[in-house]
């Protein structure tokens, strides 16, 4: 049974960066205002995510890492939106089958926190009282220690750290009211360092640099046509002065970081047609849709999504971008 669990867990947690994504999303869900990520050896030795969120109650620690343990389904609407979120209560459990997990947490009003360690879906012994300030710290050590082949491919492949930095950069420009930091273990400075702000452009400047931020334009669209789906979009797109060799597309749908290949290609086409001399674009876009209109394609843990009425939405976005690019060019 443990082999089956391990294989299933390896599907959910495919690489160190998938582990970081799950942990950081949990920290965001816990209403954190500050999230710190520390990574050692591309995440294979250590992934540590510390937040200042609401913490985990002592009585919840025992079952925390059992499969399907979640505090995030409270009503029928939530159940309907499971689909758009991918899966529920699988991430932490999966980590315990493929790594060593230590959770340190304190809830509001408590004098001390608790620390618990987990293995194969189970808490190893009673939580120990410990000092803690606020929120939760989760450490995943020796990821894939029991999956020799996976460890080998990951060691040979380019290390996951750049992917982790890219991931945190994306989170940081969407969740601008949260400060993010990401560093290699022992490194003196962080590779992602964003301070909570109320300005999206300011967040983009601090993460992607002034040369990106100064060449961005705001875009917005909404659509209330009952025959299509109800959607709202806002974001920033680069102008003709922006220079880059490849496209950067940061896409959040219903506050979840996703990829949509069809939308990305559609936007590239608009740029090529409207600003033929411009470089590949930078796009940050946040879309709100009814959760039942977002379909997680391919595999629940993949970022790729497809949308109901995708063509209509893509055409709408294309025309908004085209108009914006033409206006800026005059
Ligand atoms: P899910 O996020 O789908 O609920 P997870 O396996 O990722 O499932 O997490 C299980 C549960 O652990 C969450 O529902 C939440 O109650 C709790 N949890 C995990 N990480 C944190 C955190 N950083 N702060 C507070 N609670 C957390
Ligand atoms: Mg989660």
For the structure shown, list the relevant keywords:
single chain, 330 residues, alpha+beta, 5-stranded mixed sheet, 34% helix, binds magnesium ion
What does it look like?
A hairpin with a 2-residue loop joins strand 4 and strand 5 (122-123). By secondary structure, the protein is α+β, with helices and mostly antiparallel strands. It contains 10 helices and 16 strands. The strands form 3 sheets. Strands 1, 2, 3, 4, 5, 6, 7, 8 and 9 form a 9-stranded mixed beta sheet that branches. Residues 22, 25-26, 91 line the site of magnesium ion. Residues 22, 26-27, 30, 51, 53-56, 64, 69-72, 88-93, 136 line the site of adenosine-5'-diphosphate.
What is the gist of this entry?
With 330 residues, the chain is α+β, with helices and mostly antiparallel strands. The chain has helices at residues 2-12, 16-29, 76-85, 91-98, 148-156, 161-174, 200-208, 210-213, 261-274, 310-329; strands at residues 34-40, 46-51, 100-106, 113-119, 122-123, 128-130, 135-141, 179-184, 192-194, 216-223, 231-238, 248-253, 256-258, 282-288, 294-296, 305-307. Bound molecules: adenosine-5'-diphosphate (ADP) and magnesium ion.
């Amino acid at each position: 049974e443990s082999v089956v669990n391990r294989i299933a867990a390896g599907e959910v947690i495919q690489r160190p960066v998938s582990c970081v994504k799950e942990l950081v999303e949990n920290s965001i869900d816990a209403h954190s205002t500050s999230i710190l990520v520390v990574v050692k050896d591309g995440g294979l030795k250590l992934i540590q995510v510390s937040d200042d969120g609401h913490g985990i109650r002592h009585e919840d620690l025992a079952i925390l890492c059992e499969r399907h343990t979640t505090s995030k389904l409270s009503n029928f609407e939530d159940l309907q939106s499971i689909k758009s979120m991918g899966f529920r209560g699988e991430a932490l459990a999966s980590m315990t089958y493929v790594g060593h997990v230590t959770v340190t947490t304190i809830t509001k009003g408590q004098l001390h926190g608790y620390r618990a360690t987990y293995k194969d879906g189970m808490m190893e012994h009673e939580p120990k009282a410990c000092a803690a300030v606020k929120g939760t710290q989760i450490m995943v050590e020796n990821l894939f220690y029991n999956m020799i082949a996976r460890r080998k491919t990951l060691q040979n492949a380019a290390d996951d750290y750049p992917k982790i930095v890219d991931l945190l950069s994306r989170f940081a420009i969407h969740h601008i009211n949260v400060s993010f930091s990401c560093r290699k273990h022992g490194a003196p400075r962080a590779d992602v360092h964003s301070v909570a702000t109320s300005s999206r452009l300011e967040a983009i400047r601090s993460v992607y640099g002034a040369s990106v931020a100064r060449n961005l334009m705001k875009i917005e669209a909404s659509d209330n046509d009952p025959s299509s789906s109800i959607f709202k979009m806002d974001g920033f797109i680069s102008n003709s002065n922006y220079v880059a060799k490849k496209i950067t597309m940061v896409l959040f749908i219903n506050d979840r970081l996703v990829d949509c290949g069809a939308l990305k290609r559609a936007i590239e086409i608009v740029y090529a047609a409207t600003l033929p001399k411009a470089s590949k674009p930078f796009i940050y876009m946040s879309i709100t849709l009814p959760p039942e209109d977002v379909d997680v394609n391919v595999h629940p843990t993949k970022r790729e999504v497809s949308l109901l009425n995708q063509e209509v939405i893509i055409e709408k976005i294309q025309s908004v971008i085209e108009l914006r690019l033409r206006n800026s060019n005059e």
